Amino acid sequence: MTQDDVPYLPRGVRTRFDTVRKVDVLLGPERVLVLDQVGTAVLGRLDGKANLAQISTDLAEVYDAPLEVIAPDVIAFVEDLRDRGMVHARPR
Amino acid sequence: MLVRVDPPMAMLAELTHRCPLACPYCSNPTELLAKEAELSTETWADVFQQAAKLGVLQLHLSGGEPASRRDLVELVIAAREAGLYTNLITSGIGLNERRLHDLDDAGLDHVQLSLQGVTAEMADRIGGYNGGFDRKMHVAEIISDIGFPLTLNAVMHRENLDDLPATIDMARRLGARRIEVACVQFQGWALINRAALQPSRAQVDAAKETVARAIETLKGHLVIDFVPPDYYSDFPKACMNGWGSTGLNVTPNGTVLPCHAAETIPHLQFDTVTERTLEEIWYEGDAFNAYRGTDWLPELCQSCDRRDIDFGGCRCQAMAVLGDAGAPDPVCRKSGGRAALDALLKEETKEVAAPDFVFRR
User: Fold this and answer.
1) Across the interface, which of B55, B219, B220 has its CB nearest the CB of A20?
2) Terminus-to-terminus CA distance in chain A, angstroms?
3) pLDDT tens, A14-64?
4) Which of A86, B10, B149, B286 has the fewest beta carbons closer than 10 A?
5) Does B64 sit behind a cis peptide bond, omega within 30 degrees of 0 on the bond before it?
6) What value of ipTM does the predicted structure carry?
7) What residues contact residue B213 under an 8 Å CB cut-off, 6+ apart?
8) Measured between alpha carbons, how far is residue B185 from residues A50, B190, B191, B193, B351 in Å?
């Protein structure tokens, strides 16, 4: 994937707060992933409009972290979810 | 030592044992329950609520053929109201355009469509239902038009494992996001038909290569999950991810099982949702605690570095092959039971014609 790609959660994939385990989870076909704070922050920004560059820039600002540290982590996280079929992407 | 029991993540609701197909590898028990024994809509709805409160996140509506239940749409509405991620496991037979649109409106999250073969000839023979393949292909088109996320569940065995490349192509053609290449596991009707279904070593090796190649080339386009034919494995599967650890199964009459085949273990006592709450059954039920955790494991498994990987494997397989549900899974190369499994494999994959199927009726 490139910084220009716009990732989104396709139909059948959604996040929710698991009230029993008190964690955010990502639900998809035959998959449940427990999200940490970073995961929740990234997926919360998948609005179908922002590209990966914009998502990383926003996260770097909000968490006051260097973009060159954030950006590779974000793309790796999203790419991994794409390979598991939990995230789709289209070019901007 | 106390076993820490986590809440369950997933529940398989076997809504009915009724099914228009007669697949000789059906995972239902060989003694099928009649329609009269099935739970009511209201009871299922209550079970879904209980499941969600207990911690279940994903609900798999299965059967038999779940579309044989006239109240399927109501059940999906009830499941979504309970907050469950709802997956329909179906052959497609009994679904039509109107019903699929109703399921869409009800909030169904995902459809898993079974595939008996890539040609009408093969699929209708295996399913024991003429015209079934054409109807399934029509249903697949509607599923795609509506936009349901689709998993193709391709059940593979001696007769169709060589069609694996065409099966993966079909998943792509039908617009599936995911394919489960599910080699038959020998429980239920499949156990009766084991000799007819058991693939050869050469077939299994070729299938593994096909899968490995497809995973690489289709990355990002199709998710491929492979359930290998475990008699050819060196180590057992982590059956149910550990007994009573992750999932539970409710049969058409409300019996709650740690796995779909658990009733083959004769000394286990099972509770039903009509007598106890799901929470009591999960945490306190005798059957769930019988093989929970690892403390009960025999010494061979206790001292093994794979103890917390496969938890001694499948209890029902130990029962089926060795007559002892507490023994290590005979798939394990380290276990004494492996000789019995190897003898079965050798006997059943001789270069002779496979025996006829016993169809599920």
Assistant:
1) B55
2) 12
3) 999 999 999 999 999 989 999 999 899 999 999 999 999 999 999 999 999
4) B286
5) yes
6) 0.93
7) none
8) 45, 7, 8, 11, 22
